[in-house]
Design goal:
Strand content: under 5%
Number of helices: 2
Order of helices and strands: HH
Number of strands: 0
Distance between the termini: 33 Å
Shape: flat
Radius of gyration: 12 Å
Helix content: 55-70%
Length: 49
């Protein structure tokens, strides 16, 4: 089980990045997952208010 919601969210987002790479038949490594996470963060709108 997760110790808190932050851990659960981190696993979810990392899993989403890995799934994106697998769907593209790209290699999965720490570096490619990290790069995908950066790309995903850049596309995410910044909440205001």
């Amino acid at each position: 089980m997760y110790r808190n919601k932050t851990e659960e969210l981190m696993d979810y987002v990392i899993g989403e990045a890995v799934l994106d790479l697998l769907c593209e038949s790209a290699s999965v490594s720490g570096a490619t997952v990290a790069a995908r996470l950066v790309e995903m963060a850049a596309r995410r709108p910044i909440p205001t208010g």
